[in-house]
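Q: Here's a chain of 154 amino acids. Please give me its 3D structure as tokens.
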Amino acid sequence: SSYYTFVDGLSNGYFSHHAMTSYDALPIVVKYSFVTLSCACHARGGRQDCCVGDKAEIDVEGCDATGERMAEEVDEAQIAYLMDVCRTTEESVGDMVLPPLEENGNGNDGDGPVESPAGAPVTAAPVANPTKVPTKVPTNVPTASPFSAPTQSP
């Protein structure tokens, strides 16, 4: 559905990345938003069954209009509705968003570790020989004899 495409794009691919590849697979909070938004058709003069089953849709008339065309063809009520569609959908998606690739610095698609802010390598598992005391900066050489048990102080 076009709503699935919209929310997956808004989430930077979060849903498709997590194997939610259709509207039916979306979290209930996102589907609830679609139902709520599509049922606004009643208040906008639509038929009684305008948001039932495959008749449900969000009226996006004018969403691609800009400049003079926006002023001429899209009334204030439609603009307010489109703003509500964006706001409500964004709120339902919440923090289910992947970071943009350019933000994490290494082209990671979200599957694996990314570089730390200090540029130190990130390992998939704990190292075999941890340091005895935390260091101020990352080291490439592990401590030869780490503690055998947890310490009482950091």
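Q: Can you summarize the key feature?
A: Residues 61 and 78 are 8 Å apart (CA to CA).
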